[in-house]
Design a protein that fits this description.
alpha/beta; Lyase, Ornithine Decarboxylase, Chain A, domain 1; TIM Barrel; nine-stranded mixed β-sheet; eight-stranded parallel barrel; 12 helices; about 30% helix; about 20% strand; binds pyridoxal-5'-phosphate
């Protein structure tokens, strides 16, 4: 699963529908029910010289990334938990030497991620997959030290191979506490009939020989209170099995590096948990919290025209370069502009921003700017390090954005540019 996800209560759903109706009425366009992320900030990127920016380009700030890593490390030091970076969210391996200084390792959801984490970052490599196969299990064993199974059926199929393996791997089972903290089906592993994790009713309590740990991942962009409620249910349902384990993994979705995250509550939750289960090593595997607000995506306005509303075509695409904008959906923020999820009426210099593909729905959203946009103008999308590069595609033959780093002095260094060969390589 991926993306800037739920945190969507019923009230917000109503608001969302109202807003989209308004947009619909104002502009006669199809409704775009997108959320604004209140935690996004432009800290560290204000000094970017827009005129000199290459576009499209992801720029990831070393400084901001390190600030996040220091917060995560503080959590490790204060509580004794081990924090793994979920690579599905952020896999910019040129930063792995920096990440390695602070984190306990990586969490992978495929053989490729396990290999990348193991070879480029090292330390611990934990893998979770609902689909270990005869073809890939040996590679998983080779690159991982912890393997988490999504079902007892998968565990039964592979436990002999794992037991017989020369390389020792610690195995766990993903549990599903059936406790939801968000309501969007797409991002709720505890939704009815979910294919993630074993529910209590299906938990094979007599089939735990060789199982060292339990794993749950149920949160998404949430604060410590959500973990507190979840943990209570996990313990009520699975507490007696935790007693027999060596480790427990609280999954991802902890928005630890967000300015309003309740770190004190997190410390307390973990300290209390450790009193009840002192023998357990506790893991967290956040993705977003690692690189939250650490990257931007630069773009150029390629064309401007009018059809009931002012429309600006950009050189970046929602569907290719920030697919969560359409999947969640959410409204990414632009430096110096106002993201419009409400009425367009009161606003000046409103533009519908769209991508360069032929997909009618390649719409980023509506924004109000301080002045009229000009063709050739550069814009900067915020919070673009997470669930972007890892999800990119070359639909329509659209090029992948350049990837760059900003060092602590603000100097930008291009790491990789993409071209025709990258597009062609993926086809045959
Ligand atoms: C099993 C698992 N762990 C960790 C994560 C990382 O979550 P986040 O990026 O929301 O912190 C995910 C995200 O989907 C996941 O599925």
């Amino acid at each position: 699963m991926g993306g800037k996800k739920f945190k969507r209560c019923a009230k917000r759903t109503e608001e969302r529908l109202l807003v989209s109706k308004k947009i619909n009425k104002m502009s006669n366009c199809s409704p775009e029910e997108k959320f604004i992320e209140p935690w996004v900030n432009e800290e560290g990127f204000q000094k970017l010289d827009l005129n000199k920016l290459e576009t499209p380009c992801y720029i990831v700030s070393e400084d901001k990334l390190e600030q996040n890593l220091k917060i995560l490390d503080k959590v490790q030091k204060k509580t004794g938990v081990k924090i793994l970076a979920a690579l599905k969210c952020f896999s910019m391996y040129s930063f792995f030497p920096l990440m390695k200084k602070y984190l306990a390792g990586t969490e992978a959801s495929s053989v490729n991620e396990a290999r990348l984490g193991h070879t480029e970052l090292g330390k611990e490599t934990h893998a979770f997959s609902p689909s270990y196969t005869d073809e890939n299990i040996q590679e998983y064993i080779r690159y991982s030290d912890h393997l988490i199974f999504n079902s007892f059926s998968q565990w039964n199929k592979f436990k002999k191979i794992i037991n017989d393996s020369k390389k020792k791997v610690s195995c766990g089972i993903r549990i599903n506490p059936e406790h939801s903290e968000g309501e969007m089906l797409m991002y709720n592993p505890c939704a009815p009939c979910s294919h993630f994790g074993v529910t209590l009713a299906n938990f094979e309590k007599d089939n735990l020989e060789g199982i060292d740990g339990l794993h749950f991942h149920t949160l998404c962009e949430l604060n410590a209170d959500a973990l507190e409620r979840t943990l209570k249910v996990v313990e009520e349902k699975f507490g007696k099995f935790l007693e027999k384990m060596k480790w427990v993994n609280f999954g991802g979705g902890h928005h630890i590096t967000r300015s309003d995250y309740n770190l004190e509550l997190l410390y307390k939750i973990i300290a209390d948990f450790k009193k009840r289960y002192p023998h357990l090593t506790v893991y967290l595997e956040p993705g977003e919290a690692v690189a939250l607000n650490a990257g931007v995506l630069t773009t150029t306005v390629v064309d401007i025209f009018h059809n009931e509303v002012d429309i600006a075509v950009l050189d970046i695409s929602a569907t290719c370069h920030m697919p969560d904008v359409l999947e969640v959906p959410y409204l990414p923020q632009i430096m110096g502009a106002k993201s419009l999820s409400g009425s367009l009426k009161k606003e000046k210099n409103v533009y519908k921003l769209v991508g360069p593909t032929c997909l009618t729905g390649d719409i980023i959203g509506y924004y109000a700017f301080p002045e009229k946009l000009k063709i050739g103008q550069k814009l900067v999308f915020l919070n673009m390090a997470i669930y972007t590069m890892v999800k990119n595609n070359t639909f329509n033959g659209v090029n992948l954005p350049t990837i760059a780093k900003m060092d602590k002095k603000g100097k930008i260094k291009v790491i990789k540019r993409f071209g025709y060969d990258d597009f062609k390589e993926r086809l045959s």
